[in-house]
Amino acid sequence: MRLESVLTCPLCGFAWQETMPTDTCVFFAECPGCHARLRPRPGDCCVFCSYGSVPCPPVQLRSNGPHEAGGPAG
């Protein structure tokens, strides 16, 4: 599972790296470039799924399955 993601602001294009938490969804993020408050796009669970280079850990688990995400082999 990847925990580092690069968020890109849809307003100014500024990109910055963030570490994603494994135990919660991040609903808001502030762009360090323009200070806009980012929220998920409709249908996305968090800002990482909307604006990140890597989706959040729960989405990674659903996409990869437990074995590839570091869980026990089936």
Give a structural overview.
With 74 residues, the protein is of the alpha+beta class. The chain has one domain (4-67). The chain has helices at 47-51, 57-68; strands at 4-8, 15-19, 29-30, 37-38. The strands form two sheets. The chain has a two-stranded antiparallel ribbon. The protein is globular. Mean pLDDT is 88; it is low at 67-74. InterPro entries: GDCCVxC.
Class of secondary structure makeup = alpha+beta
Principal-axes shape call:
globular
Mean pLDDT: 88
- β content, as a range? 15-25%
Cα Rg: 13 Å
Can you list the strand order of the major beta sheet? 1-2
Give the helix level as a range of percent: 10-25%
Essential attributes:
single chain, 74 residues, alpha+beta, two-stranded antiparallel sheet, 2 helices
List the helices and strands and how they pair.
Blueprint: E1 4-8, E2 15-19, E3 29-30, E4 37-38, H1 47-51, H2 57-68
Quick summary:
By secondary structure, this protein is an alpha+beta fold.
